[in-house]
Amino acid sequence: MSGPEPVDLLALAAAQARGPYNHIFMAGSGHRARLTLTTAPGPWHHHPNTPETFMVLQGVLVLEFRDGSAVRLPAGSALTVPTHVSHRSMPEGGSGRAVSVSLEVQNQQVILEIEEEEN
Prior knowledge:
The chain is mainly β. The protein has one helix spanning 9-14; strands spanning 21-28, 31-38, 45-46, 52-58, 60-65, 70-74, 78-81, 87-91, 98-105, 111-112. The protein has a 5-stranded antiparallel sheet. A 3-stranded antiparallel sheet has the order 6-5-8, with no helix packed on it. A two-stranded antiparallel ribbon has the order 3-10. It is globular, with a radius of gyration of 15 Å.
């Protein structure tokens, strides 16, 4: 009988020519871990049933919030976004590559927020 196999997250991300790339690479009883390659700003969204924890493996990920604040997360750093907090992620400068892992509940709900056009 063999045990679980390790996952080379940076190799998985490096194999992707461009983003966005989202891949659930592990799941357990009630939780999952998702590898994300971010190459452009993502959509505004929030999660009504769970916080979301980001851990940056490579590059610099920026999390923006609706109140106008932003948090810069270099490789090796982590941040938990609380439940119901509207956010979006992007690589630093709005382009480039950031590789991160998100920890979330298995049945995570995502509410995409439609942006209103300015007149």
